[in-house]
């Protein structure tokens, strides 16, 4: 049986002055970037719904932004080959440029679709560099969980603010102004991130083919394979839930501002869960904490199956809290297992499947739109139950082997071997 992981370190981390300044700059730039992301999540579906009057078209158009995850291993290779801070900065300005173009032609769905697709490449680079590479590179091992938790909380609170601003601006000033605000947020994020310390890659160089081999080799490791499979199913079940709810609330007759307020409240719950993640089940193993969060996700989908707008609000609140908790828990799990020198390549390969399932989630709910209303959420519930079942199998295997990620992390970088050519 796996030994308990023991309590997490105190949530009150004592960062060195230089680390504290770096953390503030990373948090601020990430916050602005995520505000822009979630403004898009409100504005774009409503623009498409207004122009096309089709819920399916609204979901599938916004899903174009997530298609960039199909080539995320290539983007991860770029992240690992160049200064990670520079990549993060460039990603913000690339997204700003794409949204500036859309702001001038909000009624042209063809231009909107192309720019959303292109902005997705910057979004993937920003996510990989900001959440998975810069934190472990810029902060010491003891401070990483605290930095990750604070970054996760800021991202969730920014999501809440972004939804609120998106609903407010599109309701009051229309899509052009709302999209211009989004572009300005990305540009401001890039300007603030310009002061981040350099985060140079390691001295080793490899070919693009070798980079892909490294990522795929790590994907075959059991501790990574089971996580990727489970989280991919989770995103397939609920990866587009906010966009789905925006369109459903529109059909209920709610104005954009009210819809955004509901989603904002859920995001605040998610942010609170981020801050509390290290205190939830502190004596349990990381794997069991992930399982607890997934179980709450199943409950949330079951509540969403209940007819009525009240059930949708409660179900989303449960979903948001579970998402906030599992985001931090699973990210720290990965940071402890994957060596920093290949973090970009490995995480990008993982996210090709994990985040790449998000646009497929839109397809699931677009197809469910043709089912009876009582069955609309059932496919998502079944997929979420499948995700939990996959992770239960892994937890039981670990219990039988008497292992946990806590026992694996100390030797993770030495186990890269020939795949990564990295040693400590």
From TrEMBL:
Keyword Cell membrane: yes
CDD domains listed in its UniProt record: MFS_MefA_like
Entry-linked Gene3D superfamilies: MFS general substrate transporter like domains
The organism's place on the tree of life at top rank: Bacteria
Subcellular localization, as worded in the UniProt entry: Cell membrane
InterPro entries hit by this protein: MFS, MFS_trans_sf
TM helices/strands, residue ranges: 55-79, 86-105, 111-135, 147-170, 176-196, 224-246, 252-269, 290-310, 374-396
Keywords: Cell membrane, Membrane, Transmembrane, Transmembrane helix
Coiled-coil segments: none
Pfam family, one: MFS_1
Topology term for the membrane: Multi-pass membrane protein
Name of the protein described by the UniProt record: MFS transporter
